[in-house]
Amino acid sequence: MTRPPLAPLLLGLAGLIPFLWGALTTLRPELGMASVERFGSGAARFVGPYVQLAYGQVILAFMSGVLWGFATKTTGARAAAGYALSVLPALWAFIFTGGGPTSAATYLAAGFAALLLLDAQFARWGLAPPWWMTLRTGLSAVVILCLLPVML
Fold first, then answer.
1. Which of 29, 95, 114, 118 has its CA 20 to 30 A from that of 41?
2. Contact between residue 20 and residue 49 where contact means Cβ atoms under 8 Å apart
3. TM segments (predicted)?
4. pLDDT tens column, 67-115
């Protein structure tokens, strides 16, 4: 595996902020309450599991688009398989993240773990950049760890 370029690495790390903040405000609710007191009741959706679950759904949908882009690099049966596989993360987020925060976080964590398997398949097909799995493995691990406080 090779090292990711600086821009994707920095953007990927920045994309972890809502997950990290959500985990922190789940473990330390007083931080979330301080945010709500400072910024008003509308800020409640940006703390605790709320920010993680909403943002996690967005990211799974975004990653579907990334995989779709990888599928455009090939043709025939492999392209058809790539397109079919690429829509799974968005469908997963749409179908399985309803209900309470515990079940939604569990399904999101499973979705991110499965996404990593899809990433690996696209990389095996040579459709992802050579540094892709290095980036995705680390980011996925942090996301799943950040969802644990909501799941437990």
1. 95
2. no
3. 46-68, 134-151
4. 999 999 999 999 999 999 999 999 999 999 888 999 999 999 999 999 9
**Which residue is associated with the tokens 């405000």?**
25
pLDDT tens column, 57-80: 999 999 999 999 999 999 999 999
CB 150 within 8 Å of CB 26: yes
Cα(56)–Cα(151) distance, rounded to whole angstroms?
14
Say which residue the tokens 């964590």 belong to: 109
Domain boundaries, the chain: 6-151
Distance of CA 13 to the CA centre of its chain: 12
